[in-house]
Amino acid sequence: MRRQRNIFQMKEQDKTSEKELNETEISNRPDKEFKVMVIKMLTKLRRRININQSEPKNTITEMKNTLQETKSRLDANIKWAIISIIGVPEEKERKKGAENLLEEIIAENLPNLGKETDIPVQE
Fold first, then answer.
1. Same structural domain for residues 32 and 71?
2. What domain range includes position 63?
3. Rounded distance, CA 57 to CA 60, Å?
4. Are 110 and 83 in a shared domain?
């Protein structure tokens, strides 16, 4: 009979939240109940910590993915801009060869340099 009564009392005490218990009530509990209560509190605390740790990890992963996508788009835009500045050689310019194409590009962009020096092209 006493065992049933203790089990019932423990269930009833579990229903009351730890926040509602003040220090005197906690200290007046028997040692076994106190240990059980502390273990439950620590278990809940561990779960909350694990949840809180996983949230920043997910956020960091999302930020890394977003930054990688942005970097890829920027790289593509920069490549496109460089190609449009330099210009892709037309069919006729391709036939002229790399040496003539280089001289034309230098003459267009740096007129003084193109007239003053003869730049050798390495193949």
1. yes
2. 2-87
3. 5
4. no
- Please list the pLDDT of the chain residue by residue as tens digits (123 residues): 455 555 555 555 555 555 566 666 766 778 888 888 889 989 999 999 888 888 888 889 999 999 999 999 999 888 888 877 776 655 555 556 666 767 777 777 777 765 555 656 565
**Chain position carrying tokens 């990890």:** 57
**CB-neighbour burial class of residue 67 (10 A; exposed 0-12, middle 13-18, buried 19+):** exposed
Give the closest residue to 3 by CA, choosing from 40, 28, 11.
Answer: 11
| Residues 103 and 123 occupy one common structural domain | yes
| Tally of structural domains, the chain | 2
Q: What is the pTM of this model?
A: 0.35
Q: Which residue has the tokens 């460089």?
A: 82
Calculate the CA 15 to chain-centre distance.
Answer: 41
Whether residue 7 is found in the same domain as residue 64: yes
Closest of 85, 91, 118 to residue 103, by C-alpha: 118
41 neighbors 18 (Cβ within 8 angstroms):
yes
